[in-house]
Predict the 3D structure of the following.
Amino acid sequence: MFQADPTSSKKVLADLHAEVNKNKLLQEELDKVSANLQAEGNKNKLLQEELDKVSANLQAERNKNELLQEELDKVAANLQAEGNKNKLLQEELDKVSANLQAEGNKNKLLQEELDKVAANLQAERNKNKLLQEELDKVSANLQAERNKNKLLQEELDKVSANLQAEGNKNKLLQEELDKVSANLQAEGNKNKLLQEELDKVSANLQAERNKNKLRQEELDKVSANLQAEGNKNKLLQEELDKVKAAHLAHTLQLVNPPPATRQNHSLK
């Protein structure tokens, strides 16, 4: 019958005891690893939940940024449309300026024409002065017509002083001259020539008044159009200011978001 060696048995028991201790240590280490894995799992779960929240916030921010981008595109389109409107308005203003320049040139020519008329009127006054001197001679020769010539002289003096502004008095002068012509047959030819000259001057003055009236009406229309354009530009400027203010508010909101948005960014 085989008998175990006591020394070998002790060695086996020692090895078994060492193996049990080793297994016990390994089990403890395994328990620690399992506990750490469990803790890491819980931590990963919390991190996953936080990541899901961050992803949801990021998606919300993306949606918000997409809406902001659409709004900015609309603002840009509106600004482009306003720019086109302002370009058209500038073209209209350039046309009006060109028309005003043309009117200025016309007025310059008109002033030159008026200067010529004034020169002609001065010549007519000189002629009238000579005529008056001739009438004075006739009055000296016609004692019977002395009172009528005096009235004629007074009427002629008034007409000569106010000829430019008092065209209607030319009619009275004509009536007085007609009376003198009837009574002064010898001087009829001179008075006839005077009447013809006065009629030409009156016609020229009336024509100039009509032209000036038409020009004034045209200038009034241009002024009214300019006023309307000014009001339209004012409204366009106010609308543009509103668009700029809205755009600036959106930009400031993007740069300085509300506290809730900053907190979300902090979580990121």
Q: What stands out?
A: The chain has a mean pLDDT of 83.
